[in-house]
Amino acid sequence: MKCIAITGISRKVCEDVMENQVKTIEIRSAHNIASLLGADVGSCIFITHVRHADLGRGVLGIISLLKAREVISHTMIFGRDHIFEEQEMTVVRIQVSSVGIGRVRSVRGGKITEPTVVDVDEVVHYSAR
To answer: What are the residue ranges spanned by the domains of the chain?
Structure first.
């Protein structure tokens, strides 16, 4: 299945997504924002703690569905004496629900201005009794 990859997410957040089923995450990294700008509600999202540069065949992560997406711009003004600086930051806030665990089969894209798309196989666990 084809999914948009979100990389470099902390292990704690990944665990929360699996445990809580629905989780809101704020994304600040440029390559993840570029990937999410083209995503629609209902899109498949692959979330992994692995850094973007290390994403490749065999990487494990969470297969999830995009429930909501919001693009937010923050403007911060810093001032001291007579010098003022303005800084803008764009953040994408997404809400996802987990579907299961997946393993990357192949990676497409990945440049800073284009989405990173992965072909993922769902990992199925069987328990013998």
So the answer is: 2-122
Q: Which residues contact 15 (CB under 8 A, 6 or more apart)?
A: none
Measured CA to CA in angstroms, residue 99 lies from 1, 29, 62, 83 at distances of 12, 24, 7, 50
Q: Are the C-beta atoms of residues 107 and 120 closer than 8 Å to each other?
A: no
Q: What pTM, to 2 d.p., does this model score? A: 0.85
Two tokens at 95?
Answer: 């809400």
CA angle 19, 23, 24 (to 5 degrees): 155
Please tell me the CATH code under which domain 2-122 is placed: 2.30.130
pLDDT in tens, the chain (129 residues): 999 999 999 999 998 888 887 789 999 998 999 999 989 999 999 999 999 999 999 999 999 999 999 999 988 888 888 888 888 989 999 999 999 999 999 999 878 788 999 999 998 876 445
Spatial distance between the Cα atoms of 6 and 105, rounded to a whole number of angstroms = 15
